[in-house]
Amino acid sequence: MILADENVHGFIISSLRDAGFEIISVLEIASGVTDERVIQMAIEDDYILLTEDKDFGEWVFAHHIKDLSVLFLRYSFFEYREIAESLVRLLKTQHFERPFFTTISTKKVRTRKL
Fold it and tell me: What is the full DSSP assignment across 41-79?
């Protein structure tokens, strides 16, 4: 299951749902919560965190948050459809060994096992 941070574009969330992925949106269930609470929700319920917020990289690498798997999206506003297609394709074809931190752009995907 995927937990989408509240900054994730609605089109991306809809595309994942349309492709059959179970996704919960922080914006829909707990708008305005802190990053710490988002992390807690993801870890407690074993969700993969989908975000556009680079602060989660700091949480993982500088603060050494354990057991958090992150899909970090990097794209320009006009690429939201392309990044949604790339994300759906990636999630359908790749198995991720948890925990991980994956950066996804329209040009490449980079995964670090944590």
Answer: HHHHTTPEEEES-THHHHHHHTS---S-EEEEE---GGG
pTM for this model (two decimals): 0.95
* Tokens linked to 100: 């991980």
How many Cα atoms sit within 13 Å of 7 on the Cβ side?
17
Identify the structural domains of the chain with CATH numbers, from first to last. 2-113 (3.40.50)
**In contact, 25 and 90? CB cutoff 8 Å:** no
Residue 75 neighbours by CB under 8 Å, 6+ apart: 82, 83, 105, 106
88: CB partners within 8 A, 6+ apart: 15, 16, 19, 21
Residue range 45-75, pLDDT digits in tens: 999 999 999 999 999 999 999 899 999 999 9
